[in-house]
Amino acid sequence: MLSTETDILSAAEAWRRAGRGVALATVIETWGSAPRPVGSHLVVDGEGNFLGSVSGGCVEGAVITEGIEAIADGRARVVEFGVADETAWRVGLSCGGRIRVYVEPIT
Amino acid sequence: MQLDVLTRLNAERVARRAAILVTDLDGGAQRVVCEADIAADPLADLLARRLASGRSGIAEVEGRQLFLTVQAPPVRLVIVGAVHISQALGPMATALDLAVTVIDPRTAFATPERFPGIDLVGAWPDEALGAAVPVLDRYCAVAALTHDPKIDDPALAAALRAECFYIGALGSKKTHAARVARLAAAGFAPEAIGRIAAPIGLNIGAISPAEIAVSILAEIVAVLRAPRDRAAP
């Protein structure tokens, strides 16, 4: 079954209440052929378990890493992935789009 | 995000009330503005426009970058008529993440065997709505499929009053003309009646019940996702 934005925010709350470190990633801006619309969420815990999608798979790995770091340092951050970015090439946003993602720890 | 902010967002969604999360991307400050509180908010105009568009996005306010997460309640589909089309429509709509309810007072139609796993209410629409079925709202789609005015009309009237974002009714152009006359006689304005999609569904040449279900769902998605100015999901 596909996870909806509803499931993701509910899971974020449930995971946090269960004592897990949790970060929420939200697509805040897109350019070009970005696979997931603005407002899409991904929730990740300290172990890298995740639910939802911010890029249809392309840069999920990098976003999960950012989420784990946000859990560790307790700080929110904005990360950008796109064709002009070396990291983006490496993690493969091959569709040619660019996205900005807000990654924040649930505290 | 503070856990209490997240808890509030989730509570508003469960209560089927729209809300907007305002995040200051520079400092990280966040607050939740409920639909009922938008008018009194310092950002009232901006928030009202965002809610009407149904789209999350960035806004510049006094040199600060804000991200506005628009959270509309999950969309419900109320199907009136436990008919053959509904048997195909229910599971397909569920796959699209619509919360489906089927209402039909005719107990021969409204049987669990015919609708496994679907929320099924064997009652007249007037009895069901507000009781076994939560009251309709702007985040509901209503499909009237019985062909029987005694069952369809009260549901359509309730859907029009609740300003459901999608209202569709099965029936030929002739059937619909008679329906329009009845609703007009009941006091509904032509613009309101004009919101009813009839004949129901996109014209894709659908013949089988499953194909008709696809055409209905395609029409619901088209209305749901279309750019819009009026307040809707």
From TrEMBL, chain A:
UniProt xrefs under InterPro entries: MoCofactor_Util/Proc, XdhC_CoxI
Residues annotated as transmembrane: none
Domain called XdhC- CoxI: residue spans: 15-82
Pfam families linked: XdhC_CoxI
Name of the featured protein: XdhC family protein
Species annotation: Methylobacterium adhaesivum
UniProtKB/TrEMBL annotation, chain B:
Pfam families named in the record: XdhC_C (PF13478)
InterPro entries: MoCofactor_Util/Proc, XdhC_Rossmann_dom
Ranges of residues in domain XdhC Rossmann: 77-220
Name of this chain's protein: XdhC family protein
